[in-house]
Amino acid sequence: MEFQSKLYQLKKQIQGLSDIGIRGRISYDQIKIWLRQFQTEEEILLGHLILRHLIFKDDQQMIFLLKQALRNAANHFVTNLDRERLTWNHAICKDFNGLKFYAGPPSFHYEGLGKPGKSGEIITNLLKSFFPIDRLKYPEYFGNTLSGNEGYLLVDDAILTGNQMEEIIKKYESLLINPNHQSALIVGLAHEQALDYLKNLFPNLKIFYGEIIRKTSSFSYLSEQWIRSSFWDYRYQHPLEILERVSQRADFSNKQHLGHNHQALLLAYSYGTPDNTIQILRDTSSTWDQLLSR
């Protein structure tokens, strides 16, 4: 397939995703402006491939995924018979069988990680719509102790590497991992790398998620896929080399070309972009304009 034919195919796909709202508030005009920063034929193709495979979650999608994670937790904490006749929020928000669940997001300010921001607002508003107000607590409220008929659900939007969540779990390990408590970690999105990492460190930690992000969705993996399928012309340099060239030209002050932990994600939310995502999508410099808000 010739370059122009490949480019036309990708443009149609990207515009289609934009037109139906899959890219949230990012307009197709903004996308075209961002793509003008790619110069050579191989760079231009790479820019379009990045946008074609970008995973974008808006507020409503994240709320849906968090609800799904809570539903999965409810299914775990009730019997098969009860599961048939109860809604998930009845099972974990209404003191079913005398079990009282508390829930809340990590207290980022308390943990020294800054303000929770929009993701914290989404989580808190969702929990307020189901849990009684006296059940919404940050984990430090309990001093690592619960009574036998109580459980705690630590709720966050996503775990991607697991590193940041590791520190929070260690701090509240007796609250979250205790055979006498029905506690769990609840996340909308879970990267399989983070799941493997946390399960290895905390084998008894219960984790429930709405959707899993596979390693195969990373830029690094997709690059190999493009080469194997021959969509990427054999005469071009490797996609990782092209990304490095573009990133070097952008001259970012804090160089994280493949994102935090070299995870090379193509992931964004309507309220921000994780630093695990490749840098040219989310960062700006004197010679480069970002596409996604941070």
* Largest β-sheet summary: 4 strands, parallel
Low-pLDDT stretches = 109-116
Oligomer: single chain
Strand order of the largest sheet: 2-3-4-5
Per DSSP, what share of the residues sits in E-state strands of 2 or more residues? 5-15%
As a percent range, the share of helical residues equals 40-55%
N-to-C SSE string, H for helix and E for strand: HHHEHHHEHEHHEHEHHEH
Number of helices: 13
- Residue-averaged pLDDT, rounded? 87
Radius of gyration: 21 Å
Overall spatial form: elongated
Total beta-strand segments: 6
Could you tell me how far the N terminus lies from the C terminus, measured between alpha carbons in angstroms? 36 Å
**Structural class of the helices, strands and pairings?**
alpha/beta
